[in-house]
Every structure is written in C-alpha cells, then in structure tokens.
Amino acid sequence: MSEKRKTRKSSISDQPISSEQSSQMNEDESTAPSISASDRSKDKMIYFSKGLKRSLSSESAAPSDALSYRSMGQPLSFNVKKSELTEEPVRKKPKKDLEPQREAEEDPGGSHLLKIQTNHRNEMLRKFAKTSEGNGDQESSLDSIYTELIISTGESEGPHEEHSFRRQRQPSSVNTVHLNDIFRHVLPQDTTRRIVLTKGVARIGKSFSVQKFILDWAEGKANQDFEFVFSLAFRELNLIRGNKSLLKLLTDINPALQHLKESEVLDKAKVLVILDGLDESRIKLDFENKPVKSVTEETSVGNLLASLIQGNLLPNANLWITSRPAAANQIPAKYVSMVTEIRGFNDSQKEEYFRRRFRDDVNLPEKIISHIRSSQTLDIMCQIPIFCWISGILFKEIFAGDEKAQTPQTLTEMMAHYLLAQTKRSSRKYDKKTERNKERLLKTQKEFLLKLGKLAFVQLQNNNIIFYDEDLKDCGIDLQEATIYSGFCSTVLREEDVISQKKVFFFVHLTIQEFFAAFFVYECFISKNTKELGNFLDWKDQQHTLYDLMKMTVDKVLEEQNGQLDFFLRFLLGLLVEPNRRVLEGLLTSPDLSQDTDKKILTHLKALRRKALSPESCINLFQSMVEMRDNKVKDEIQEYLKKSDRSKTELTPLYCSALAYMLQVSKDQLDLLELKSFNTSDEGRRRLIPAVRISRKAILADCKVTEEWVKHLSFGLKFPYSPLRDLDLSNNDLKVSGVKLLCDGLSNAGCRLERLSLSGCQVTEKGCTDLASALKSNPSHLIELDLSYNNLGDSGEKLMSELKENTQYKLSKLPLEHGGSHRMIDGLKKYACELTLDPNTVHKNLLLSEGNRKVTWVEVEQPHPDHEERFVTCQQVLCEQALDGRSYWEMEVLEPFMVGLTYKSIGREGHDGKLESNDKSWCLFCSNDGCFVTGDGEKVSVTSHHSRSSRVGVYLDWPAGNLSFYRVSSDIRTRLHTFKTTFNAPLYPAVGLHTVPKNSQSFALFC
C-alpha cells in the first residue's frame, strides 16, 4: 500500500508574512522528507494543522541509511503519467479490454500469459515509479530520492518498542541484508516457500521499502525469479466486505490480472505476495479455521490470509509481511522463516538531514542540531525521519531572524508550538481575512480541533492509527466539513484514496495523534464534560476534582502496562503546567490555580511504590515529571553520574528509574552494570533492570531476581543491537520457571550472549532440557555456561556435556561441579557449611565447647598445650576448615566479638596477629563503640545497620572475590557490607573475643 505526503511550512510568529516569505515557505515544504509512495491513489489531503499526517501504514523509526533527506518526513504521492511508464505508448482503444480475452481463446498457452505478466509489471510501474513531493507540482522518480535502508536480520523485542526511547546502537556484529536480497538471505536456501516478517516502528520506511522492492522487480533490475509480485495493503483489505476468492481479491486490487482465468497458473508460478501494514489490520486472522486450498474458493478475507500464511493457498508462494513490532505477534512464529528489522537515523544521519535540508542557511542547521542534542527526548525522537521533518519546520520558524528565541523546553511545548504554527499557516494561506491574534485564531478553530482530538483519543484507545469515513463521522466530522477546514489539516490529518475510491485517514505521526488525544481529554476534564470520554475511567456518577481525574488517569495507564498510552499521559500531565500550555491560549482552558493540581500530581508520582509497576512504567513516570518541568531528579542523577565514588550516595527507587533512563539514552556504552554496587533497596535494583540491555557485562548475582525480572531480561536478550555479552545471574533462585523464561530469550536469533552464569540458580534436569533446546535454536554465540552449584542430576549433566562436545556449538567452558539436592534450598543456605574450631589455634583465655562449635571468653587461662599454631597475643581462634569455594554460615554472638576470615599465614604474636588490623584478614567487629568492618586497608562503620539481633551471617564466594557480612533476624538477612577483592589462598573462618567485666560474658556459637 502506498503512502503520499504533502507538507507546507509552518509559522509561529504573529506577524503577517510577505509574498517573498510565502514563496520561500512553499519551497521549504517541497523539500521535506518523503517516506511513502502511493498505490493508485490521488493524494487528496485534508488540511489541518501540520500534525496528523503520520503515515499510519507501516512506517516507523529505524535507521535511515535508506532514506534520502527528502524522503524523511514528508509524504510522497505517486501520481504517475502512464505514457511515461508503459513499454508502449498509451493509446485510446475502446475495445482494448476485449483483446486479452480474444488472445486467450486463440492462444491459451504462452503469449496470453506473457501479456498478462507484462501488463501486471506495467501496472506496478504506474503505481510506484514516480512520486510527487510536497504539493504535487513536481514529479520525481522514486529512484531519484531513495537511499538504501538498513535492514538487520533478527528482531527487537521488549516492552514499549513502539516509542522506544533507547538510543540506536548498531554494533558491527549485527547482520544486515540488502533490500533486494531479502529472500536470498533466508535459510534454508533449498526451501520452496519462505516467509519474511519485517518489523519497524511507525514511519520508519517499511512501506517505502516495499515500493522500492516492487519497482526494481517491475523494471527488471532484481528478483526476476518471481513471475508475479502482488502487494496487498491491510488498509485496503480492511474495506473489503463479504466473501471473496483469492483470485478475485488479486484481480480487484490488480486490474491487469482481470483476464487471468486459469487459476492453476498462480499455483504453478513463482509468486511473491506482500502483506503490507499488519499493524493497520482490522481483520481477524484465524489460524484454526477450515483451510482454503483453491484460489477460486470464496471465504472471508481473514480466512484467505490465514490460509495463505499457512501455505494452504499458493503453497509455493513466498510471503513478505511488514508490521509495527506490537502487532507482529499475530503471526505464529512457526510460519516465519526470517525476521528482519528496519532501523532509524543515527546521529550523523540526523545532522546530514538538517544540513542538506537547510543548505542555503549555514547557521540554521547548527542551531537546530545543537538544540536537539540538548534535549535527550527530542534527540531520541529524531531517530524517526519524519520527526526530523517536523522539527525542521518548527525550529526554522523559531530561529528565523531571532538570535534570542526561546526554544521549547519539553516535548509537550514543542507539540503545542507545532499545532499553533500549522493553524497560522493554514489561516494565512486559505482564509480571506487573516487573524493575527493567536488567541482569537485558536478560538475560531477550537470546535474542529476538539473533534480531531476526539478522533485521536477514541482511536488511540483502540490502538488504531488509520481511520475510515465512519470513524470520522462517529466523532462529528464529515467530509464536507473536512473540505471546509482543508487548510487546517494538510499536516495533521491526511486523507488518501484507496480501493474502490474509498478513503483512509491518518495522523502524520503517532506522537501527533497522542498529543491531540491528550489536549482533548485535558479540555474535557477542565470543562467537566466527561461524557465525551465514554468508559475511559470509572466515573461512578460522582463529582471529581481535576486532581482526582488526573490521578485516576495515571492509575489507569499504569494498569495497562503495555505502553500504549505512555506518551498520551506525558502530554496530558505536561498540559497542567502553564509554560507548556501558554502557547495554546484560546484553545485550552486554564485550570483553577488555587487547587495546585500540578503540584499534587507530582507528589503522587513521586510517592508511587507499587510492586506491580514494571521498570518501564516507572521510567515513564519519571519522564512525565520531566514533561511537567520538574527536573530536580534528572539534574541530581546527572551529578551522580559524575561522581567517582557513587556507593556512598543512597538512591531511592524513583532515582533508580531516572538512572535507568539516563543510562539508556547516554551516547557512551556501559561496559559494566553491577546491581549490588548501587546503594539502594531491592526495589531500586528492580527498577534498574532496563539498563541491563545496554551494558556489555551485567552482574545481577545475589540480587533476589524474580520471574518478573527474568521476563525483562529475556526481552533484552532478544534485542539484536544490545551490546550485552556477559550476564551473571548466580545465586538467584530462578528455579524451573525462571530458567524457562530466560531460555525464551536465549533461543532468539537476536541473542548474542557469550557468557552466562546460572551458578546456584536451582537449575534442574528440566532446566537442562530447556537450555539445550535454546542452544539448538541459537547455537552460534554462547561460549561459557556456568551451571555449578545446582541439582542437574546425572541425565542433566550428560545432556549438557554432550552439547559441549558437539562441534555445532561454540560452548567451550561448562562448570558443572558442586551439585546436589541441597542446592535446591532457597537463599544463601544452599551454601551452608559445618565448621568446627581448631583447638590448636585457640588462645588460652578462650574456652571451646559443644563439639568445638562454641567459643567463650574466660578470665582464667586454660591449660592448652603449647602449639606453633596457637594465638599468643590476640584472643582469637581459627576454624579447622579451609574454604576456597562458596560457603555460608551463621553464628550466635554476644558482644564484644570479631568474626571474619583470614589466611593461615596470619601472625600468632604481636600486632600483626589482630584480625582487625592486618592485610591478611577481613572481619566484622562489634562492641560498645559500635560496629565496623575492616579489610583491604579500610575501616567502615556499619553501626547504622546494627540491630539487637544476636545472630550474624557470613557469605564467602572465593572464586568471585566476594565476602559479605549480615545481621540475621527471623531468617531475614540485612547486608552490612561486601568486600570485593582477589583471594590468593584458601581462607579460614576466625573468631576473636575481648575482655569483658566480671559477671559478663562474650561468646560465639556456630549454628
């Protein structure tokens, strides 16, 4: 399906423009970027304010290696001159349509079919060879404006992909494929049927790529092994009513095939069917229905498409399906041969776009680029080509002739300026009398703008980005009214003719639709006209304050957890702030400032602590605060990132959400993300999970990772542009369910993980089966897999060992030791060890008892025999066991005491023998003066963590160089401190007791 765009320049100033300025304005619009081509439509556009033109077919934000600067923001309309495209001059022949039928009767075999093929190619040329940019006065060939798009193999999955705010990272290891080689790249090569699914966010260039592919085929440049290439756009298919056969469907959409009567021709021919814009579909694809096997059998369009995808219809045909990410899962994975993704602009491409677009003004591009760089949100959004176009129109108006111009500080303010600019532009161009006062101008257009806002809101709730006549009528808009306001809609709501002279409508960009929906809901809230909002909220027939309504909306969006209303919420809350709303005076009503609604909502956002909130939802709350111009958290996180010693700064969960966002949009690659290194709570660490996918190495060891965390990690593993190569999940109780979720990501072709530690994760025989299956699906990357300290069983160990020996896999390091059923105990107790004190090392003022598990300080020296290992100066004792693996133990203690670990070479006499004051020991020391940990030359107070609990815990991970001390109460461990170092010899647990007053006691008992 084609897309066509017309754009005109906007103005934000209140001053009338001269004829010279008007001429320059139209010239700018004609050079706006183009991403779409037409099908057979004449691009009639409803003029509204440059916003609703987002080609809701199948475009989005991906790398635009493939879009020329002119093909990046403005729609293309393909108005083809037939005489220039057909192989023969077009002559009027009244009886021409009868000739193919006569030829078929005379020559049923060859020339008739060849004639149909030729006519079909010519028809494709007429649709796609030429395009008119801007207002359609000039035609350009599609080839002249096309630049090769970056198409990667693999898929990008994860929450909120449609408005992904992550910076595009494209490592050299990612596989790319040329557009015309997309079907040659599919494996296995000998298959007769291949289905390629191409994903990309809206307006990235998916349909544009389809059109270029078809044009190259029709011109004989590529893919000549296909005898027929058919393009079926879902925006057209939605309009077909009743039952049809596949043959009838193809001939209706491709009139050149109308004389193709031999149905078996399609069955035998090499055919490519392109299903463009799955995300626009309103058709139910039922893969359980009775299959259709004949191209002449009539059934519903949904059943036809399902049978085509399943291979029941045209079993030898190849299929190419394009879709936004959110809708792609409608196609069962078992039917898909390969997934590809189209990417957006990188930084250099964005800069090139603005410099080429404004090449006559040396300073303007640099001003625009500088401003975009200063706004992380805008910088990310401009990865989408059409958003660069929108930004160019807006910022040219702002910077034109004004060195001190105030630029929009938020995305909400930017959209408000854009709406005003387009309103002014249309008024200057189409109104007999131009209204110079912006407030009065907006008031005159308010009724129609709110109708468009209602359309945007209703369709956004249904996740629709294309609309039809009946959708407009439901919102009080008829085509006659649209014509009256045509000057208002050219860059907001676009109209396009499709099959049977019917029309489709769509906003210029999803962000524009979301902004219109937000200001409509805002105005309904302010005017208390909640009936217009239908069942959006549970009104309960009560009177609600503006704060109540805003709070209810926040809660509703958070409950959705699909990201569909995230930007809508940001815009809605952003409109509460007067500087964002000021530019739309006359359109929007100001709230009662005495209610302090904006301050109350900010307080509500900061106070949210729901466990059910996904990390991505938490980030959206932070971004909503930024839209409300509350930048305190953002500024403090920026300062935090500049610190060399961040461990001393405690982070609240909200600050962790902000940090996760800042890390994701940073241009610097994150080499290491270790969650335990952040001074925060378990909830704070949970909110940092989204940052894992943008780090090269992530350590989540002993972080109480839950199934929810694993789901997000699995999504991150599927992201083909993630630099993540090393993931440490050791000491987390993933169990069977968690391992299975993780394997969903490991099995994906986009996963390029090289090292994975699942040591101590309660992996079982079933987990080994899931891991083996994942590696068989994606065998090319994983080199190291640590499965030690689990309960794999003999069969599990055998299965994994066989994978290591199989040269098909790269797996070269596979630790399996230290297993057993006791490893299935939750928490650190799976590493519990039995320790006994060494009587040959005990000081003479210490008494051992209870099988050498308890030591007590005594005033009277004990008759211990002399021994070279005995402590002489310090009242200490070592354990008999040397530890060089993972061990955990707990002790009952009575102050004053010291517990820790040391090398066997610790001195037995003098100052060097004290646990708390040498370079061979690490210990926890508690007395009336407080609690401290000492080791590695540092002494750290942990008194603030001190509790009345008489039990302490010690965890040693010798290979990893980690030693942690805990206070334990009712089986709840509170970590006091963790040392990270490198151990060079086995360690011995040690206890030290101090002199106490008479009738007092100091002891330690190994539990």
Defining key terms:
single chain, 1007 residues, alpha/beta, Leucine-rich repeat, LRR (right-handed beta-alpha superhelix), Jelly Rolls, seven-stranded antiparallel sheet, six-stranded mixed sheet, 31 helices, 28 strands, disordered N terminus
Mind explaining what this structure looks like?
- It is found in: Cytoplasm.
- The structure is a single chain.
- With 1007 residues, this protein is α/β, with parallel strands linked by helices.
- Among the domains are: 151-342, Rossmann fold (3-Layer(aba) Sandwich), CATH 3.40.50.300; 631-828, Alpha-Beta Horseshoe (Leucine-rich repeat, LRR (right-handed beta-alpha superhelix)); 832-1006, Jelly Rolls (Sandwich), CATH 2.60.120.920.
- Helices cover 33% and strands 14% of the residues.
- The strands form 6 sheets. A 7-stranded antiparallel beta sheet has the order 16-17-28-19-24-25-26, with no helix packed on it. Strands 3-8-4-7-6-5 form a 6-stranded mixed beta sheet.
- Helix 4 crosses helix 6 (206-218).
- The relative contact order is 0.08.
- Residues 1-106, 132-138 and 156-161 have low confidence and may be disordered.
